[in-house]
Structures are given as structure tokens and as C-alpha cells.
Amino acid sequence: MLREWSDLPSDKDRHAARALFDELERLTHRINEVEREFKQLTGTPSGKRLKAVPDVATLILQFRKQRNKLFPGLFGEPAWDILLSLAALDPAKAEAPVLSIGYAAEVPPTTALRYLAMLEAAGLVERTVNPDDRRSVLVRLTAEGREKVQRMLEKWSLAAIVVVAAPLALLAGFFLR
């Protein structure tokens, strides 16, 4: 309850509060859009999954490549980079030559071959002779490998939304009480 005229907010304060509220509404709207986009990427109500894996995998690979340019030789996860490179492939053409996967993962050919052998032993990838060129070998994620990578990428996508949404929710609660 106001006791004096001096307790009324100034025009400047009301304008600043209105601007903050408008920005909060804009951010809330954007969070809702991101949530809808996330649901579209990760699946429909019927449980069918859409194209989330290649898109998220490509985004993570791009981030890792930028990080490696800034910090050359300091970080390296060839197995994960190979899995991401395979997951980023178009699902309609979900296999690629071994050398291409090594190139996409930015690992030397011998390292790619060594890690592909480990991933194959773990049941995450499979290699087959290229029917068009019997001198080369194609590699693809197994069903188990694709499922595990997809689960991880979906968790990361959800975590990214939470990281953005949590502070905004706190801010909304502060201004809307």
C-alpha cells in the first residue's frame, strides 16, 4: 500500500520496468519456440524420431573443430568424433568410406582404422566391402551404435534447453511475483 506520493515509481522506473517485462515476454515466447522445435527434432507424439541426430551431431562436430583450431593438440576423442561423423551422415546414405570418416573426424587414417576396430569390437559400427569399389571399405553405425549416439545427443539437446530456460524462469519468477 502506498503511503506517500514519493512511493510511486517515477516515469523512468515505469518505462524501465515495462521494457524489462517486454523483453521477458519475448524471451518466454522464444523458449516456447525452442521447446516446440526440440519436440519436432526428437520425435512426434507417436514416438517416431525425426532428423535430430544428423543436425545435432553436425553442430557438435563444428563446435569441436573450432575448439581444436583454438587449442590445437590439447583435446582429442577420436572414437567420439568418428561416431559423431557417422551420426551426421544423411540417414538415407548412412555409410561412408573409412578414409572419408577419418577425414570428417579430423583424425589421421591410422588412428581412424585403430579406433574403428575398437568401435566395431564394441558393436557400435560395422564395416563392409564397398560393392562399387572392392578396394575400399564402407563404415556405418550399427542399430545399437545409432541408438546410443542418438540418446546421448538428445540428452545434450535437452540439457542445452535447460541451461537457457532455467535462468529465464528464475528471472520470470522474480519479475512476475
TrEMBL record:
Molecular function GO labels: DNA binding; DNA-binding transcription factor activity
UniProt xrefs under SMART domains: HTH_MARR
Keyword Thylakoid included in the entry's annotation: no
Entry superkingdom: Bacteria
One Gene Ontology term from the biological process aspect of the record: response to stress
Pfam families xrefs: MarR
Keywords linked to the UniProt accession: Coiled coil, DNA-binding, Membrane, Transcription, Transcription regulation, Transmembrane, Transmembrane helix
Domain spans labelled HTH marR-type: 17-177
SUPFAM superfamilies: Winged helix' DNA-binding domain (SSF46785)
Transmembrane regions listed in the UniProt entry: 156-176
InterPro entries reported for this sequence: HTH_MarR-typ, MarR/SlyA-like, Tscrpt_reg_MarR-type_CS, WH-like_DNA-bd_sf, WH_DNA-bd_sf
Residue stretches in coiled coil: 17-44
PANTHER family xref list: HTH-TYPE TRANSCRIPTIONAL REPRESSOR YETL, TRANSCRIPTIONAL REGULATOR, MARR FAMILY
Protein name: Winged helix DNA-binding protein
Source species of the chain: Sphingomonas tagetis
Lineage, opening ranks: Bacteria, Pseudomonadati, Pseudomonadota, Alphaproteobacteria, Sphingomonadales
